[in-house]
Amino acid sequence: MRHAQDDLLIVEALIQLSREIEEFEPDRADRAWELAIEIAAQHGLSLEDAVLQIE
User: Counting C-beta atoms within 10 Å of the first and last residue's C-beta, which end of the chain has fewer, N or C?
Assistant: First the structure.
């Protein structure tokens, strides 16, 4: 089982990936964004709150 902080780092990485590839691979960018939302929601957080919670 992953630590909650690990999930928050994954959320941050997925957000960054989504932004970097959205122009060239929009389907993958959308999937990365949705996955980030799902992981953040597992912790009861929005994407913004998840990034702010990273230690």
Answer: N
Handedness of CA 33, 38, 39, 41 (dihedral sign): positive
Residue 33, SS3 per DSSP: helix
Tokens 């941050």 belong to which residue? 12
**Helix, coil or strand: residue 21:** helix
Domain that holds residue 18: 4-53
Residue 15's H or E segment, with its range, is helix 4-21
pTM of the model: 0.91
pLDDT score for 1? 76
Which tokens belong to 31?
A: 């999937």
Structural domains of the chain, count: 1
